[in-house]
């Protein structure tokens, strides 16, 4: 049996991507919870460039960056594939993963840090504009998942973002992923949460909100 370990923070949406992938694949692994303020020597050794989680360790060999890890796992363990086999479909999936990652850095982090209500409203409008693109391009035509009828890497990428958005909705007492505004995405989210590996493996909402509040206070 392969020696599989995952270094992470329980609240990280990027770590959650790897957890979901391992659960979908049914791969047993050892999880090492890292302390953001006191990272283990192993983490710093495995990821000396960015010194960040997630770090996936397979038979002593570290792999960094969440989507790179997801693709690595999908290549090594072929069951329940997450990356399309067809070259064109694979390219399209990678395009949308990149779009989602760009969206996270452009709007999610600024929203977390926002203190002014007017600023927050502008950021939410930008999130809505980007959600509209995904609503129209990825989740129409009665698709069950963003990649079509089969759960794949695009769902994992966007799902980690959506889970964090729900926590921010609770914290700021706003509605971002509105069913009336985004009916296809709302249906997609329900389908996404029905996947057993997702439903049974996500952070407690109340605990996540408290964690985000704590991190916001530290940034002030």
Secondary structure class reads alpha+beta
Instruction: Name the assembly state.
Output: single chain
Radius of gyration: 17 Å
In terms of per-residue confidence, which ranges show pLDDT below 50 for 5 or more consecutive residues? none
> If strands are numbered along the chain, what order do they take across the biggest sheet?
2-1-3-4
- Succession of helices and strands: EHEHEEHHHHHHH
Distance between the termini: 47 Å
Determine the number of helices (DSSP H or I, runs of at least 4 residues). 9
The profile of the biggest β sheet is: 4 strands, mixed
Query: Approximately how much beta-strand content do the residues carry?
Result: 5-15%
Helix content: 55-70%
What's the overall geometry?
A: globular
Q: Give the integer mean of the pLDDT values.
A: 92
Number of distinct beta strands: 4
Q: What would your notes on this structure say?
A:
With 220 residues, the chain is an alpha+beta fold. Helix content is 59%, strand content 8%. The chain contains nine helices and four strands. It has helices at residues 13-25, 41-46, 66-76, 87-113, 117-137, 153-172, 183-194, 196-199, 205-219; strands at 4-8, 30-33, 55-58, 61-64. The protein has a four-stranded mixed beta sheet, covered by helices on one side. Helix 1 links the parallel strand 1 and strand 2. Helix 4 (87-113) runs antiparallel to helix 5. The radius of gyration is 17 Å and the shape is globular.
